[in-house]
Threonine synthase
Amino acid sequence: MQFISTRGGSLGQYTDVLIEGLAPNGGLAVPAELPRIDAGMLEEWRELDYIGLATEVIGLFATDIPRDDLRQLCESAYGAGRFASPEVVPLSDIGEGLTLVGLSEGPTLAFKDLAMQFLGGALEYILTNRDRVLNVLGATSGDTGSAAEHAVRGRDRLAIFMLSPKGRMSEYQRAQMYSLHDENVHNIVVDGVFDECQDLVKRLSEDIEFKREHHLGAMNSINFGRISAQVVYYVWAWLRATDEVAESERAAFEVSFAVPSGNFGNILSGQYARLMGVPIRRLVLAVNENNVLDDFFRTGIYSPRSAEKTFATSSPSMDVSRASNLERFVFELLGRDQERTAAAWEELRTTGQIDLSAEKHRFESEFGIVSGTSTHDNRIATIREFSDAVAVVLDPHTSDGVKVAREYVETGVPMLVLETAKAPKFANTLAEALGSTAPVDPATRALLDAPQRTVDMANDEAPLRAYISEHALR
């Protein structure tokens, strides 16, 4: 399989784009042609465990990794002891026609682990084969940072420079990242919001000379390795949701997914699963008060907000106004036309928005995407309701997904809500919703009390360049 940039040009094969991250012209890597998944393949995969299914699905993209090696990478990522659930991704009925897809069983208690555990091992495998090193440069609004750092820590050929917005994450999220003292982990706290952190990453990544000199790469969702590994759990969830459906009815049996979204990477993976042939009726996009994406899918006009107008909310991982992965969706929307996609992002650069209102009628009819917004009051009420009704405690982001999902439930169509993280990561919000503070277990207390190591930095690329130049692996 060959990969291309959304803005033009060829990028090589799977292992090439994992190392490259952002394309040299600022575009994102996408398959030159999406692979297909048909009903026969889905039935062949039904009896596989998560390791086996990941090997098959990722293998549709990673055609340049020998299958035995890919199987070993998946075993390392998803094998015994890596995830709390033996299924890796358990599904549970939470009532009202909703099923919770348990994506937060990994080491950092967030859905990002499903992709990061694979990507960390895959990058090490590629770097070893090529006798190279890679310095991962990324930005996080909450869970990406800890998942990436836990996947990279202690690896000889990888270092990570993770930018996070000062004061914008939960205490638990900060502790998970900042308490890591591995020499190859660098936590850089930027005096700004997530979008400003992300802009710094993009500016350095688009400086080809600097990127090459310092061996920069990416592990956030601009890296296609993340997207490919996330497609797996959409296939897994469809299989588990249809296990009890009559075999004669399975091929066309549709489910819907509700996806809390910040940077659009998670739901983009679902869009690929749908385009590839998995029977998905709707993809329900849920956002918080930073509802730029909801505005886009209702109007067709993408108009990111400034840093000053990006709210700090109680679902902080979604405090994003510039969704990097939207470019991959627009590429599909525009008929996979690289020139039109590049022109759209030039329009964004020069005018501050992209007007695709002429295409908005296609969002649901052709791509199955609908959207909705959840507020602080909504998430508090949702957490409280489901705790009382079914004794399930949702994290704030997942509660946003549940709130919006309830608006789109259809009789006979299972609504699968993707869990974002475990609720204890957001103790203050839980206390407000449930009326009391849950006891802190010894492991959490030890994490919160552990010494933290960070580097404070202004929202300025000059000191960031200097710091990377001094500390990057060579």
Remarks:
- The radius of gyration is 21 Å.
- The chain has 21 helices and 16 strands.
- Residues 112-130 form the longest helix (19 residues).
- The chain has a mean pLDDT of 95.
